[in-house]
Amino acid sequence: MLGLVPVSKRGAGALRGTPSLADEVRLTVSNPAPALAASVRTGFVGAIGNTPLIALPKLSAALGRTILGKAEYLNPGGSVKDRAALGIIEDFEARGLLGPGGVVVEGTAGNTGIGLTLVGNARGYRTIIVMPDDQAPEKYGLLRTYGAELHVVPAIGFADPRNYYHVARETAAAIPGAVWANQFENTANRDAHERTTGPEIIAQTGGRLDAFVTAAGTGGTIAGTGRALKAYDPNIRVVLADPYGSALYAYVKTGELAFEGDSNAEGIGIKRIVANFRGAPVDDAVRVDDRTLVEMAYWLLREEGIFVGGSAALNVAGAARYARTLPEGSVVATILCDGGDRYRSRLYDAAWLAENDVTPTATDLSFL
Q1: Backbone torsion region of residue 27, taken as left when φ is above 0, otherwise alpha when ψ lies between -120 and 50, otherwise beta
Q2: Where are the domains of the chain?
Q3: What's the rounded mean pLDDT across residues 305-326?
Q4: What is the pLDDT at residue 35?
Q5: Which of these, 317, 245, 326, lies nearest to 286 by C-alpha position?
Q6: Quick check: 13 pLDDT over 70?
Q7: What is 47-79+196-355's CATH topology?
Q8: pLDDT of residue 34
Q9: What residues have CB less than 8 Å from 58, skipping those under 6 apart?
Q10: Marked catalytic residue, from 81, 139, 230, 271
């Protein structure tokens, strides 16, 4: 197991004569020249990233392997997609495609739209979000509250021109000067994770990591983080956790796009190879069904006090299953994508669980 290094506390005497944060804020208001302490983050954008890496003690003890969750739900916008949103917007800005008063358009299952909207608010951009109509209602409500112009379209296949992806592209093309975030094909998404998420995990584990397991929606997280981890140590295994209904599991295992079954998991799983996933250094794949996802979500809440959404629960289940194939004492990291509050009307609603025949019943980890 990884040891925890205590942080030493400074005595009261160490603070004598040193300005407090409140003092610094007062100074800044009256005189903007003095800089805030290095530990103070500037605005919404400055608070993205550097999320905790949380050891899951009960799960780790049960498996005899350390399972670590990168707590991306603690980003200021509430999900891992804050990183992609910031990376995409900063890339547009650097290329001169987005400036004050600009418009950002995206098709999304919700979290990328939330991240883009909040980064856009901080930067002074208008945001137009297109979503399919089969996502958790909480996400629509948050986007409207945050000020996005929200367009909800039928949840239909990618080949149909009415699919949310195509509607977002066409919406951006019809607005002079607007940019289409295009999170699936825009590799600024992947680059953001290679630049931040991967190096953070290396630093937080001291490089002592045997495997990294996570799902793919756009592929940006697994590809970017995986590239950074492999550059540090090629022996770190990068493993895809995939829901049923997605074709990526078969692609990793056989090189062919094929799928079976279906899933209610939101924001993950895809039936095509997009630019962010193409060339991702993925060594292996595990598949996780919806019942296992639900059981893990409730186990994490009950046993670890961790309240997460379905993709995070799937990731932890996938990490646990893969960890069992590794020697005892191995260390496996995964992504806790977002919090459970965005799924209270579904994953955490008894009627919805019963309707989808996934009411949790396990009292232990036998579902793994």
Answers
A1: alpha
A2: 47-79+196-355, 81-180
A3: 98
A4: 61
A5: 317
A6: no
A7: Rossmann fold (3.40.50)
A8: 54
A9: 303, 304
A10: 81
Instruction: Look up 230 and say whether it is catalytic.
Output: no
- Average pLDDT (222-233) is 98
As given in the structure block, the two tokens for residue 201 are: 């995990």
- What CA–CA distance (Å, rounded) separates 340 from 149? 24
Residue 158: both structure tokens together: 């990618």
pLDDT category, 39, cuts 50, 70, 90? confident
Q: What tokens appear for 144 in the block?
A: 């409207």
Burial class (CB in 10 A: 0-12, 13-18, 19+), 274: buried
Q: Which fold has domain 81-180?
A: Rossmann fold (3.40.50)
What's the pLDDT score for residue 3?
Answer: 42
CA dihedral of 293, 298, 300, 303, whole degrees rounded to 10: -150
What's the rounded Cα separation, in Å, for the pair 3 and 1?
6
Residue 25 has pLDDT above 80, yes or no: no
Per the CB < 8 A criterion, the answer to whether 315 and 213 are in contact is yes
User: How many Å apart are CA 230 and CA 256, to the nearest integer?
Assistant: 24
> Can you tell me the distance from the alpha carbon of 197 to that of 230, in angstroms, rounded to the nearest whole number?
13
pLDDT tens per residue across span 49-92: 999 999 999 999 999 999 999 999 999 999 999 999 999 999 99
Quick one: which of 244, 240, 348, 248 has its CA closest to 285?
240
This prediction's pTM: 0.89
Lowest-confidence region among 33-37, 60-64, 160-164? 33-37
Q: What is the mean pLDDT of residues 307-317?
A: 98
Distance CA 177, CA 101 (A): 10
In contact, 138 and 342? CB cutoff 8 Å: yes
Helices H / strands E in the chain, number of each: 15, 10
Contact 312, 288 (CB under 8 A): no
Those residues whose C-beta lies under 8 Å from the C-beta of residue 221, and which sit 6 or more positions away, are 80, 84, 193, 197, 214, 335
Which residues, 6 or more positions from 368, have their beta carbon under 8 angstroms from its beta carbon? 292, 296, 317, 320, 321, 324
Please enumerate in sequence order all residues whose Cβ is within 8 A of that of 349, keeping only pairs 6 or more positions apart, or say none: none
